[in-house]
């Protein structure tokens, strides 16, 4: 528009709300080599993070804090490299985000 060409940048996204379940999925897990789980699957409050060479490629988040939904697409878009143990155990995901506060 307006004569200014810019690339279309998009993180694949899907969501569903059914009864007491609410989940969102970002990215493409094709070719992943590691999976990190957070939360409690028995209580239906968990997230699954797919990594490819420690780079986040996809995330599924079900009934989890807003913080996880906020960082997932950002990290996928920016090809964030994450330490799997830190991702699994961190109470504050923003502390793992080396791009937090940057504008792009």
What is the H level of CATH, i.e. the homologous superfamily?
Answer: FAD/NAD-linked reductase, C-terminal dimerisation domain
| End-to-end distance | 19 Å
What's the CATH first level? Alpha Beta
Looking at the overall shape, the CATH architecture is 2-Layer Sandwich
Shape: globular
Order of helices and strands: EEEEEHH
Describe the protein's architecture and organization.
With about 100 residues, the protein is an alpha+beta fold. The protein has one domain (about 15-90): Enolase-like, domain 1, CATH 3.30.390.30. It is built from two helices and five strands; from the N terminus they run E-E-E-E-E-H-H. The chain has helices at about 65-75, 85-90; strands spanning about 15-20, 20-25, 35-40, 45-50, 55-60. A five-stranded antiparallel beta sheet has the order 1-2-5-4-3. It is globular. The mean pLDDT is about 90.
